[in-house]
Amino acid sequence: MLQTRIFQRLGETRDRAFEGKLVAATNRDPESEMRAGRMRPDFYYRLCSDLVRTPSLREQLDDSPDELIHLVQVVVGDILGGADQADVDDLTAEVIVWIDQRLGAQYEWAGNFRELEQCVSNVMIRGRYEPARASLSDSASPASEIDAMDLDGDSLLSRYTTLVYHRTGSYLSAARKLGLDGRTVKAKVDPEYLASLRGATRATPDQPSPA
Asked: Which helix (H) or strand (E) holds 16?
């Protein structure tokens, strides 16, 4: 159907022309997934003609730092549910101060807007927010491989680039931290190592901080 743009309704035998447009979304890099063998090349090349990349929250804030205030205000308003605007503004200011003092203006927001929602909710309800941290085994960490002298120069750069990309959540932020251009960062990211980092993050529970 993708190739011929012809389909049949369930239970029908008459061919119909498909006049719509197929839209697919993913939180992974399709090109890296294809190179790692997790996406069929023919499927990738059917979808890649018009790629639209949504910038991460960190990238949006880099372009417009004041956007954080607006987003926090929206979340606070949703949580309070029709409260007076003055109350929303007061709580928004308190949350912004907490974020600035505890996380810092350059916090990466690896979980994007969903993480911001959780942060605002936790600060409002519990007075604190503790970001989840990746927990890597010694055998998976670049430091242990350096100690064991198991990495050559190119592999070391690839591992460290992948780690920075995982922590920052975007090629642009990783490139800024590494002093490299975005294409180099993208080329150096190791899909298999990235998958292991993401798996370690999902397996690590969010530990509450002391009151």
From this structure: strand 16-17
DSSP secondary structure string for all residues of 27-62:
SS-HHHHHHTTSS-HHHHHHHGGG--PPPPHHHHHH
* Helices within 48-170 (DSSP H only): 57-63, 67-80, 85-102, 112-126, 142-147, 153-168
Q: What angle do CA 185, 157, 35 make, to 5 degrees?
A: 55
CA 96 to CA 103: how far, in whole Å? 10
Distance of CA 172 to the CA centre of its chain: 12
Distance CA 197, CA 2 (A): 34
Hey, where are the domains in the chain? Answer: 6-50, 57-126, 138-203
CB atoms within 10 A of CB 174: 25
Would the pLDDT of 117 be above 50? yes
Single-letter residue type at 11: G
Q: What is the pLDDT of residues 29-43, one digit of tens each?
A: 888 888 888 889 988
Each residue of 69-99: pLDDT tens digit?
999 999 999 999 888 999 999 999 999 999 9
Amino acid found at 29: D
**Could you give the CA distance from residue 192 to residue 15 in angstroms, rounded to a whole number?**
42
pLDDT tens per residue, range 143-178: 555 555 566 778 888 888 888 888 887 888 888 888
